[in-house]
Structure formats: structure tokens, C-alpha cells
Amino acid sequence: MLQKHRAISEEMNQNPWENAYWFARMLINGDKYGAIGRQSKFLTEVCIALQQIVEGPAQSKDIKFELSKNIIQNLFEKRFSRKTAKTERIKLFLEDLFVKLKDICDIKVFILTVQNILIPINVALESIPNDDKIYTEEVAKAYLDRLGNDALSTVVQLWDNAGVIGCLNAERGCIVQGFAHLRQSIRHMSEHESDTVLTAYVQEFERRLGQKRKGRAGGSLEDVTSFLFKYFNIKAENKPDHFQADIEIDKWILRRDKWLIGISCKRTLRERWKQVSSAHHDVLNKFKIWQVWHLITYDEDLSDDKLTLLGIQRHVFYLPDNSRRLESARNHLGMKDYVRPMSQFIHDIKKEQGT
Questions:
Q1: Helix axes 191-231, 119-127, angle to 10 degrees
Q2: In the 3-class helix/strand/coil scheme, how is 92-117 assigned residue by residue?
Q3: What is the 3-state secondary structure (H, E, C) of 313-343?
Q4: Domain spanning 251-353: CATH 3.40.5.10
Q5: Where are the domains of the chain?
Q6: Interatomic CA distance for residues 230 and 224, integer angstroms
Q7: Which residues of 163-179 are buried (b: 16+ CB within 10 A; e: fewer)?
Q8: CA-to-CA distance for 289 and 220, rounded, in angstroms?
Q9: How many CB atoms are closer than 10 A to CB 274?
Q10: Cβ atoms within 10 A of the Cβ of 119, count?
Q11: pLDDT tens-place string over residues 283-340
């Protein structure tokens, strides 16, 4: 097995188009190189200049190679001369790039990477939604208009599921379209070379999509909380001054007695429950927080121990009405006070606010 991996690695290293993946990674690496690859306009100018050298008047390959390196060096240094925060990272980028640029073929790989992989991915990512709202708001409103509070559980779960599916479909469409365009652009290559470039495109696109999904996942259920507050005309309050407990609260409401209730809407607690439990009685009392309410869409990881520990510390869980965990906990003497059906959520808010 080890020999097989070595053979594959050696074959890849001998293929100059393997650098298509590594150039793309270097250009978009923010921590190490300053994410230069996000500047599509500048990189287009660089590639146009390089193409003039590569496709220009007859010169030896060595001269064209040296001219190309000079173009890269000069344009990058000129572009970032005043950005002191990036100066060192740009220097490091150029140093590492020139290690990989060994001949004029590598310059061609660099041009193709920018023009056919990096910039198309940049453009495609801009067309993919940063949140799920465009796929969910109208459907959610229709459910609530027709069914009122009885639709709450459906709306929260639909918001999560439909939004994810909508965004994934948008991603899928962009990848397929970009893949087809790239395949046409490199049809002159050998099968092995084109496979190397196409997989570099897909791998880098998927990696960057994964980063975008993380942002959406964090905001999706926060969006549904805002939507519900707006739909039911619920007034939200500001976070208590200097409140810094390790607990993620999306909204705050004020009870009739001027104590606060924190609202947190998440898919699952997972490992977050240990952080949530840090908001103990003393912290809650200090900031006049009566309780913390959690809307949870995936509740199978809510063990009896979690529910009991957090429930004792004034946390209440709203679970989908058809949840197995909800049914089990409601029939349990030690947990029934800490769980409620999601359809009861708005009713409970209005009751606490006295509206």
C-alpha cells in the first residue's frame, strides 16, 4: 500500500499541471499569503501581461520565463507597496511561488489556474446565497398565515431543511456549470493532464464552499428567530451590559417583572452544552436573566443528564412537536419542567411579556 502511494505521489510530482491545485491554494490562503486570490481584477491584469510574454514574439523559453517572473514580481510589489499589513505576506507568497515556478510551462499553469479555476470560483461564490432566507421566508409566512402557532415546529424545521437544500442546489449548479466550461477550455490536454486540472478545480471549489456553509449554518436558525419575532410583533431587547458568559443568545425578551429571557435557536447543542452550563444561577441573577430558552431542531443528543443539569440551571428546551425526546422527557418526573413543544414558543413569550 505504501509503495502504491509513493508511486502515485511521484507520478503527480512529475505532472506540471499538479501545480494548478497548489497555486489555487496559495492564492486564496489568507493567513499565510494574504488571500491575494480574492482580487480577481488584479489577477486578470497579471495574467494578461503574462500572456503577452508567453504568446509574444519569438524568444527562447528561458528568456520568456525570466520575463514572466519579472512581470509577476513587479506587478505584485507595485500593487501592494502601500499595504504595509500585507507586505511580509506578499513577500512570502512570491518567495514560495518562485520555488514552484521552474520553467515557462509552470507560468502557463499559473495563468490557467487564475483564469479558469480561481476567478470562476470567485464569481460563482458571489452568486451563491450567504443565507437561507430567500428560500424560506415566503413558505414560512404561508404556513403561519394558515396555521398560526401550530405551524411553528414545521416552520423552524422547514427553514433549516429547505434553506440547506436550496443553497446546496445553487452550489451544485455552479460547480456543474464551471466544471463543464473548464473541461471545454482544456480539451486539448491529455486525459491525465485534464484530470489533474479538473480535480484541482472541484477540490478547491468544494473547500471554499465548505467555508461558506459554516457561515450559513451559524446564521440560518438565527434568521428564523428574527423572522418569528417580526411576524408575531415581538419586541426584542438589547443584551445586558457586560454580559460575557460562554452562551450564544440570539434574542432577548423582557418579562413583565423586568427580568430578561435569552432565546437561542440552534440545530443541536452537541459539545456546546458544557459552555451553556457555565451560565449558572449566579451569572443569571447578576444580569437579571430569568431563564434561557433553546429552540433545538435536532435533539437526539439531548441526554437525560444534559436536560436535567441545564434544566436545574434555568434552561428550557423547545423541541419539535413530533420529537421522540420531547415525548420521553414530558413523561419523566425529573425533566418534564424543562421541555416544551415548539408550537408553544410564541404563546409562552407573549405570556411572559403580558401581551
A1: 20
A2: HHHHHHHHHCCCHHHHHHHHHHHHHH
A3: CCEEEEECCCCHHHHHHHCCCCCCCCEEEHH
A4: no
A5: 1-127, 128-231, 251-353
A6: 10
A7: bbebbeebbeebbeebe
A8: 25
A9: 12
A10: 18
A11: 788 889 899 999 888 887 788 888 888 888 899 999 988 888 888 888 888 888 889 9
- Helix (H) / strand (E) containing 266: strand 260-266
Instruction: Quickly count: other Cβ atoms within 10 Å of residue 242's Cβ.
Output: 7
Tell me the C-alpha distance between 248 and 158, whole Å: 22
Residue, of 192 and 283, whose pLDDT is higher:
192
Do 239 and 252 touch, CB atoms closer than 8 A? Answer: yes
CA-based angle 26:29:35, to the nearest 5?
105
Burial class (CB in 10 A: 0-12, 13-18, 19+), 96: middle
| Residue in 10, 28, 31 with CA at minimum distance from that of residue 20 | 28
| Residues 240, 211: Cα–Cα separation, whole Å | 31
Strands of the 251-254 sheet, one edge to the other: 251-254, 260-266, 289-296, 315-319, 339-341
Cell numbers that stand for 49 in this block: 501581461
Q: Note the residue count of the chain.
A: 355
Q: Annotate 150-204 with DSSP letters as a single string.
A: GGHHHHHHHHHHHHHHHHHHHHHHHHHHHHHHHHHHTTTS-HHHHHHHHHHHHHH
**Cβ-proximal residues to 213 (8 Å cutoff; 6+ apart), any chain:** 167
Who's near 273: CB < 8 A, 6+ residues apart? Answer: 306, 310
Residue 73 per-residue DSSP state: H
Q: Which of 149, 142, 125 is nearest to 40 (CA)?
A: 125
> What confidence tens digit (pLDDT) does each residue in 36-46 have?
999 999 999 99
**Chain center to CA of 89:** 24
